[in-house]
Amino acid sequence: MSVSTVGNNIYRWLNERLGINTAILPVIEHPVPETDWFYVLGSATLVAFIFQVITGVALAMSYVPAPNSAYDSLQFITHSAVLGSLIRGIHYFGASAMVILVACHSAHVFLVGSYKFPRELNWLSGTFLLLFTLGMAFTGQLLRWDQSAYWAVVVAAEQAARTPFIGTWLVELVIAGQTVGGATLTRFYATHVFLLPALMFLFIGIHLYLVIYLGISEMPTPGDPVDPATYKERYHHLLETEGIPFWPDAAWKDVVFALGVGLVVVLLAAFIGPPELEKLADPSVLQAYPRPDWEFLWLFALLALIPPSIENEFIIGFPALIIILFLILPFIANKGERSPKRRPWAVAMVLIGFLSIALLVRQGEIAPWSPETNIQPLPSPVVENLKTPGEVRGAALYQNLGCQGCHAIQGVGGLKGPSLDGVGTRLTREQLISQIMNGSPNMPAYAGHVTTQQLNDLVDFLQTLK
Amino acid sequence: MANPTAEQRLMNRRVFLSRISIALTTLAGAVVAIPMVAYLLSPLLKPAINVWVPLGTTDGFPLGQTVEAVYHDPSPVPWAGLTALTAVWVRRVTQDQFIVFAVNCTHLGCPVRWVPDASLFICPCHGGVYYADGAVAAGPPPLPLFRYDNRVLNGVLEIRTRPLPVG
C-alpha cells in the first residue's frame, strides 16, 4: 500500500467518526465577506490568549503561591530554570500584546460599526472579555509579590474602599481578610489561574459561536446604513454573490498576522526578557516606589492629575461610566451608518481615547507630581558661584531640607515644584522668605522648622541663582 | 373531561420530564454553589479584630523623633510569613505622649516615608506631603495621616489594630 492510500484510509476512518466532511468543513469553509487587514485583530487576540494559557501552565509548574515562596520561586524561574526566562518573557510581553490587541480590536469594531444589529451580543461578550483581560493583567502583576505588587494591592483596596455602601465589604473580599496577608496572595492566584481563565473560555466560546452564527460583518459602505428589517437578508445575499470561503481564502491573513505577533513577542522575550523583580514584598520596608505596569499606569497618572475635590466620585465613577458606556452602546446605536467616514464623532472618540492613554502612560513614567527621592549633588557651576559663608551654609541646607525633591536647579532635582533657575531675579528677598515660611497649596510651610539664621542662609543661597 | 389522546399524553409526559429535569439540575447546582459562594464570602463572616498589640518598650522611641515600628497581625494565617507584619510611624511628642500614624497615604494608601531632615512625610505615588503631626502639607491627600489609638502599659507602647482600609 502506498503512503497516500494509508493516508486516505486514516482520513476515511476519522471522517466516519468525526464528521469532518459533513460537520466540520462546512463551518471552517463557510462563506464570509471579503475584508481588509484590520479584521485580523480579533483572531490575533485569541492567539495571544492561547500563548498566555500555554506559558501560564508552564509557569504554574514552578510558581508557589505563598508569601514566603512566591518571590523565590519566580526568581528561580527567571534565573535558574531551563528556558524559564524565555517563558516568563513570553508571558509578560504576551500579556501586553493581548491587552493592546483586544483594545485595538474593540476600537476597530467600534469604528466600522460592526457592533450594530444583529451583532449586539458579540459586542457585549467582547466587552466582558476586555474586562477579563484587564483583570488578568492586574492580578498577574500582583503574583510577582515584590514591593510594587504588595503596595498595588493596598492601593487597589483603598480604591475599592471608596465604593459607596459596600466599600468596606469589597475590600475584605479583595484582600480576603482585614490586612493584605497570606490569604490575599492565594486569592489572587486562584483568580488569575482558574476563575478568570474559566470565565474567558466561556465567553470566548460564546463570542466565537456568535461570530460563526451571525457571520463576520462586511466592510462598511458610506451611505449604506444598517436597517434591522432588511440587514440579514441583504447580508445573506452578499454572501451568496460575493462570499469567499473563510478557510483558507480569508483566514490566511489571520495566520500571517498571528505569526507576526508571535514572532515579535518571542523576540522581545528572548532579547529584552521579563522585567526584573523588585525587592521582596515586605510591609515593614517603607522605601517602596509602587507603580503599576503600563496597562494601569494611565489610571494611576490620572488619579494624580484630577482635582482632589472630585476624587471620591471619580475613583469609582470614572471606570463605572466607561463600562456603562460600553454596555449600553449596542442598545442606543444599533442601526444606521456604519462607515467611519460618516461617523466623525466615533473617530474622534477613539483618537482622543488612545492619545489620552498614551500621554497619561508617559506622564505616569515621569511622575512629575512626585518628589524626587534620589537626591543628586548640586551642579558644579552653582557651587562655584557661592561666595559668602552664608551662601555656602544655605546651599547645604537646601540639600538637607530636601528642597531638591521638588525643585530643579539647572536640571538637577524634582519636577513637582517650579524650577529655581533665576529665582534670585524672579522673586525679591521678602517674597522668598514668605514663600518658604508660609508655603502654598503645593508646597509645605517651613515656619517653625527653620531658624531665622537658617532662613537667612537659605535666602542668601537662593539669591545667587540669577 | 374527555380522555386525552395518546399524543396529548406523550406531550404531558414530556413537559413533566423537562420540568423535573430542570428543577433537579438547578437543585444540584445550588447544592454545590451555596457552600462555595459562602466559602468565597467567608472573609466577611469573620468579626473585625481590634486588639491591643505591643510596638516595643518606650525607650526605643527617642523624644521628638519619628521612627518606624512594626506589629504582628493578631490573627495571621500560618503561612503568612512577612505579610503578617504591619508597619507604623511612631512620633514621641513628649515623655509620655505618642502619636502612632498609619503608614498609608490617605489618598490611595501608598506607604509614606519620613524624611527627617525636611521633617515631612512624603508619599512616593502621587506626591502627597504631610507635616510631622500628620497634617497635609501638599499634594492630593484629602485627610491628615490616620492615627492609631495608643497607650503605654508597663513601659511598653501598645496600639489598637485597625483593618484596611485604614481610615
Q: What does this protein look like?
A:
The complex is a heterodimer of chains A (466) and B (167). With 466 residues, chain A is mainly α. Chain A folds into two domains: 33-366, Cytochrome Bc1 Complex, Chain C (Up-down Bundle), CATH 1.20.810.10; 380-463, Cytochrome c-like domain (Cytochrome Bc1 Complex, Chain D, domain 2), CATH 1.10.760. Chain A is 64% helix and 2% strand. Chain A has helices at residues 3-18, 20-28, 41-60, 70-79, 84-111, 120-142, 147-160, 167-175, 182-214, 231-242, 246-271, 294-305, 311-332, 344-366, 380-384, 389-400, 423-426, 429-438, 452-463, and strands at residues 31-32, 244-245, 408-409, 412-413. In chain A, the strands form two sheets. In chain A, strands 1-2 form a two-stranded antiparallel sheet. In chain A, helix 3 (41-60) crosses helix 11 and helix 4 (70-79) packs across helix 5 (84-111). Chain A is elongated, with a radius of gyration of 29 Å. Chain A starts with a helix and ends with a helix. In chain A, 34% of the residues are buried. The mean pLDDT of chain A is 92. Chain B folds into two domains: 6-44; 52-160, Rieske Iron-sulfur Protein, CATH 2.102.10. Chain B contains two helices and eleven strands. In chain B, the strands form three sheets. In chain B, strands 2-3-4-9 form a four-stranded antiparallel β-sheet, with no helix packed on it. In chain B, strands 5-6-7-8 form a four-stranded antiparallel β-sheet, with no helix packed on it. In chain B, strands 1-11-10 form a three-stranded antiparallel β-sheet, with no helix packed on it.
